[in-house]
Each structure stands twice: as C-alpha cells, then as structure tokens.
Amino acid sequence: MTIRTLAAGVREHRLLLLRLLVYPYAVATLVLGPPGVAVTAWDWAVGLTCATLSLLGGRWPFGVLMAQSVILLYLRLSPGATAIGVVSPLVLVALVEVIARLNGRFITAGIVLADIAIMLVVSQSTGFAPLPLIVRMGIVIGGAGLVGALIRTVRARIDEAEARAREAELRHASESRAIRAEERTAIARELHDLVAHHLSSIVLRSGVARHVAPSADPRLVAVIDDVHADASAALTDLRQLVSVLRDPERVDEGPGAPLIDGADLRTCIDEIAERTRQSGLSVVVRMDPDVAELDTVRRLAVLRLSQEGLTNALRHANGATRADLVIRRGAMGEVQVEVKDDGMIGPHRRAAEGGGHGLAGMRERVELVGGRFDAGPGEHGWQVTAELPPSADTGAVGAA
Questions:
Q1: Sheet holding 282-287: strands in order across?
Q2: Residues contacting 287, CB < 8 A, separation 6+
Q3: DSSP string spanning 381-399?
Q4: Predicted model pTM
Q5: Mean pLDDT by 10 residues, the chain (400 residues)
Q6: Which residue among 30, 72, 241, 264 is the one 20 to 30 A from 361 at the CA level?
Q7: CB 97 within 8 A of CB 148
C-alpha cells in the first residue's frame, strides 16, 4: 500500500465520521424544536431518513439533493411538520456536495432545485416580499455555493498534487529500471568476454591434454578429467548466469531473487560433495529430507553455502582428511547449515580464510534473508555455521 492510498483511505474515513454527525444534529433539532410543538413519529421517520440519505451524498450527490428537495417541498406543504428544520440544512449540504463533485448541467440543475425548495421555506417567514427574499436566498444559496466551490478547488489541487507524485514515482521507477538494466548488461558483458573466455580456454586445453597424453599416469588423467568436468560445469553455469542478467523480464527483481535456481537441492549437494571427494577430501553429508521444501531463495542459499564451505575446507584446511556437511531444519522452519573439517588451525589458515571473498559472500547471502552466520575455529578444526530464518509464508514444520 502506497502513502497516497493510505492518505486517501484516512481522508474517506474522516469524511464518513463527519457525515455521521448528521444523526446527532437531526436528533437535537427534533428534540429542541419550537416550544409547544409536538414531534410526531412521522417527524422522526422523515428526519432520520434524510440524515441517512446524507451519508450517500459522496456517491450519489445529485440523487440525494433531488430526494431531499422533494421531501422538503412535501414538508412545506404539510403544516406543522417539525422535520422541516432538519431537512432544510441537509438540502444545502447536498447542494454543496453537488457543486464540489459534479460538473455542468448537474450543478445548474442542483442550484435551481435547491433554490426552489429553500425559497418556499424562507418565504414562510418573509412572505414573497422581493427584497428580503432575495437577500436571504443570496445568503443561503450563495454561501452553499462558495463552500462547494472552495471544496472543489481544494480537491482539484489535491488531485493535481497526487498526479504529479504518481508521475514522479513512475519516472523514478523507469530511471531506476534503466540503471539496473545497464548495470546487469555491463556485468554480463564482462563475464562473457573475460571469465567465459578463460573458462573456455581451460575446457579446451584440458580436453587436448587428455588426448595428447593418453598413456600418462592414471592419477594425472583423473585430475585432468576433473579439471575438464569442473570447468565445463562452471562454463555452463556462467552462460546461464549471463542469460539471466541479460533477461529484461528479471530487471525488476529484488536483491533477494536468485539468479540461478537450485531446483533439485539434494542432487546438487551430492554433486558438490562428490567433486570434493575426487579432489582428495572425504565428505560426509547429512541432510534432512524436508529441506527440499524450502522456497527458491533459501534453497539456493543452502546450495551456495554448502558449495563455498566445502571449497574453503578443500583449499585452506591444512592437513584435513574429512569434512562434514550438515543441513537440518528446525521445528519453526529455520534451516541450519554447518560445514566442519578436521584441519589444523593456525596463522596460515586464518590468513587464507580472510584473503578472499568466500566468507564475505556467504555472510552477505545469509544476512540478505535475515539469518545469522559465523566462521571460525571449531572443536577439532574449522567450522562454518549459518542459520536461515523461515520464509514469510512458512510456519513451523509441524504446522505445514
């Protein structure tokens, strides 16, 4: 809900409260009417009916004015009708509504209708003497006209201000979208021209190496195969990322929107663990089955945390032989990701961990969804832990 919508709602509620004041006005007018004049049930029915009609003046101003004018004319022809003191001012209020809200012939017709009805009421005290009648009618009808014109002017100014605000908001949104599109295109271009070029070269050269040295040490061939497979997978992901960055339909997505969807989380986790094992580090994965039910943003966050955590353990865990990856879901729907290794802790490990952007990227990804992140020495090595809160539309697991 925008501020303008909220302000319009508040304004309408205030107008409704003002309209409801017609009920105490009608009651007070009937109770405090001319002394010695009995207020009949008919007077009460007519007075409260006209008060109720006034509540509809904002939606059907001319219809309300016509109905109340006819009722006033009927009361003028009914001697002793106390309700005439209630209806006369309400006709003027309806005339104000017509002048403030309608245009052209409706205003002219409304003024003529109210003029006839009010003139017959005023003539009760002045007779049809021209000068007193003209003066009173000028004061009554002219005053209502001035109030209606003032309200109409204020409403027009408010509408103009809101139109300018809408135009400025649309212009700002359009400019922001253009800037985001330009930034995403520039990033996509650099990724394609620079990073993709190097990855393509790695894929090509590793493929050539496999054919150039077919009788080499099997361990060397296995390493070359791993390099070729990892580079090919990275090149595929990079091309998908470039495609997403260039997609105009995704320019308006917020910072929490994933660029690549980790659809089958368990399969992706197993592939990451297997690549880590092939690189020489034993990996044990324990993952709760219901983690796969996470929304896309948190599913991808779990995938990237697992990937970066195992990569850090492989690169920086001095003397490590094993890494444990634990992904579990709590009772309230929160997700905990934990990566532990049994490597030695020392100045070299701390310097290596702080030298890149891996930990910073993991921390940013976790904080983006309002979670908590921590990395440091554990009980037997290095430990990375993250907790992702449940999504807005996800309650406790037991209630899901």
A1: 282-287, 322-329, 335-341, 382-388, 372-377
A2: 266, 269, 325, 326, 327, 328
A3: SEEEEEEEPPPTT---GGG
A4: 0.46
A5: 47 64 82 72 86 84 89 79 81 87 86 83 66 74 85 87 89 83 81 79 82 73 80 80 74 54 74 84 88 78 86 76 89 89 64 58 83 83 87 46
A6: 264
A7: yes
